[in-house]
């Protein structure tokens, strides 16, 4: 059972963790796009200005499949992400405080989409919720807590 005195992670520290994680995914994805598109920056950045055609299956894999697989792996292995680990945070089941289950992790990931749809209000929700849960956390019944590890 999750202890009542648990320290929930707030909006700003979670934003910092997200920026670290985004940078890591950028560092992983950019070289793949660079190699596949042979340095065509307009294709790499998806500007639509390239004279060459983009490859839909590769764009979907690199921009959606890879981040999904990467995120599921780190959440299942560490109950966290590299950014959260660096800032001393952990994702847990909201009721038990135990490690995420795979279904919860998938639901939490998918929950980011409705959370960002209306001006990101589902993410900003973290700042005002008593348990510091965003909409994606509420959907998956998870919380992000500070750890002493």
UniProtKB/TrEMBL annotation:
Superkingdom to which the source organism belongs: Bacteria
Annotated membrane topology: Multi-pass membrane protein
Domain RDD: 8-141
Keyword Oxidoreductase: no
UniProt cross-references to Pfam families, sorted A to Z: RDD (PF06271)
GO cellular component, one term: plasma membrane
Spans through the membrane: 12-34, 55-78, 109-128
Location in or out of the cell: Cell membrane
Keyword Transmembrane assigned: yes
InterPro entries for the chain: Pra-immunoreactive, RDD
Keywords, ordered alphabetically: Cell membrane, Membrane, Transmembrane, Transmembrane helix
Name of the molecule in the record: RDD family protein
Organism field: Acinetobacter tianfuensis
């Amino acid at each position: 059972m999750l202890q009542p005195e648990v320290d929930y992670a707030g909006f700003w520290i979670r934003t910092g963790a997200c920026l670290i994680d985004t940078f890591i995914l950028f560092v992983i994805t950019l070289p793949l796009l660079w190699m596949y598109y042979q340095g065509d920056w307009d294709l790499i950045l998806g500007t639509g200005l390239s004279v060459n055609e983009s490859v839909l299956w590769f764009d979907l894999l690199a921009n959606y499949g890879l981040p999904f697989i990467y995120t599921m792996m780190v959440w299942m292995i560490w109950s966290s992400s590299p950014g959260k680990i660096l800032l001393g945070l952990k994702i847990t089941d909201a009721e038990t405080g135990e490690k995420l289950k795979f279904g919860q992790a998938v639901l939490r990931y998918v929950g980011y989409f409705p959370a960002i749809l209306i001006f990101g209000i589902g993410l900003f929700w973290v700042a005002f919720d008593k348990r510091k849960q965003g909409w994606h956390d509420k959907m998956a019944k998870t919380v992000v807590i500070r750890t002493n590890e």
